[in-house]
Amino acid sequence: MDNRQALGSWLSGPRAAAEEMGVDFGYRGERLGLPEQGPGSLAPVARRFGALFIDWALCVLVAYGLFSGGDPRSASNWALAIFAVLQVLTVGTVGSSPGKRLLGLRVVAEGGGRLGPLRVLLRTALLVVVIPAVVWDRDGRGLHDRLSRAVQVRI
User: Fold this and answer.
1) SS3 (DSSP) at 109
2) Measured between alpha carbons, how far is 63 from 58 in angstroms, rounded to an integer?
3) What's the rounded Cα separation, in Å, for the pair 49 and 124?
4) In this structure, is the dihedral angle defined by the CA atoms of residues 105, 111, 117 and 119, taken in order, positive or negative?
5) 3-class SS at 152?
6) Rounded to an integer, what distance in angstroms lies between the CA atom of residue 47 and that of residue 14?
7) In 3-state terms, what secondary structure has residue 81?
8) Can you tell me the distance from the alpha carbon of 104 to that of 86, in angstroms, rounded to the nearest whole number?
């Protein structure tokens, strides 16, 4: 291996370097028994962020209109509380928040089916903290989903 290959493998990351050496990681979601594409496959990161943005915007509007009294600073605090309640109620009952539903996503348990109430509460608490949601595994799942044994899939 010459210097350019060594530098290229360092810049492209450990996964790309391992794949060049012949390691087969499979597709995202394969370890979870999910299909590669279509309904039931792992949700793409861009759609998950889009759903999060829609849910957050909805919560900010509700907080600003109903609870803040016109003060934008207090609206953000209320929005976080509304966001947590929205996640617990919607993901805990129908498996999708409004943003997830609009973008064709659902949160399910790793083995399929609905998440139990305690796992929904754990997932929501970790999502509100933010840091666990931005730490991903090789399947692209956030730590909040891993710890609550949840998977975001396409509908």
Assistant:
1) strand
2) 9
3) 15
4) negative
5) strand
6) 25
7) helix
8) 17
Predicted confidence (pLDDT) at residue 9 exceeds the cutoff of 90: no
DSSP code per residue over 9-75 = HHHH-HHHHHHHTT----STTGGGT--SSSTTSBPPHHHHHHHHHHHHHHHHHHIIIIISTT-HHHH
Strand partners of residue 89: none
Q: What is the pLDDT of residues 137-153, one digit of tens each?
A: 888 899 999 999 999 99
Burial classification of residue 86, based on how many CB atoms lie within 10 Å of its CB (0-12 exposed, 13-18 middle, 19 or more buried) = buried
Alpha-helical runs (H) found in 63-142: 72-93, 98-102, 117-129
For residues 111 and 150, what is the distance between their CA atoms, to the nearest angstrom? 9
Please check the confidence at residue 108 and state whether its pLDDT lies above 70: yes
